[in-house]
Amino acid sequence: MHEKERHRIILSAVQEKPVVTVPELVDLTDSSEATIRRDIAALHVQKKLRRVRGGAEALHPPQFVGLAGRPFTVNETLNTRQKQAIAKEAVGLCEDGDPIIINGGTTTFQMVHFLTNRRMQVFTNSFNIAEHLLKHSKNTIMLSGGTIYREQNIVLSPFDNDVTRNFYARRMFMGAQGLGPLGLMEADPLLIQAEQKLIDQADELIVLVDSTKFKKRSSLILCGLKRIATVITDSGIEDRDAAMLEEAGVNLIVANVQTDAKTQNAPSSA
Q: CB atoms < 10 A from the CB of 219, how many?
């Protein structure tokens, strides 16, 4: 990752929470601790943040604490071909008229390009997904209420009496911070709380993750493998991870990234 991009991520992170640790920034940027410490030192000298023991803090700490994790604009540039191929397979599971939930994320966002000519009832917590489908499709769109988290481009509510409880979905499509033997993992407690409500409204949970997510871990578990009906990933998945899913009774779909990268059939909606 280029230095300017790392600096942008670091500055964004310190604006989202009071103090960000070096290990957290290592995870966000996929860089070494030495690189992050140099970046923090440079930004401290430039008076763009304040270096503290073990991490960094904003010069003017935020009053509103955001979500943990990389910004949407950074994640959407990672493993793009894999995400497109995975999204195409996901939409292939849908039929016109289906009520579905699409959780906000960069992999699930890629579904919008393949939903252009479909007619479904779509509930989402993502402004990006809702806006694109409203402009470029005839799908019926419902958007959840709550607080807007700009960096992740999603809307989350901690309250039980929001509109989520009034929507039934045949399937819910979502990504994750990581996927392992204990199940789906996320980076923030509020994400866990909001996404668990969405999962409760769907018959089937379909997880869209590129193969790198099987190596990612978090301290927060969203749900166990038994709750997942299907995992869609790319051919980079290792045999041990495929065996883990099979043992848990999870259906596995492996997207053909090379074929999709050469001949993407997504309708143009730009």
A: 8
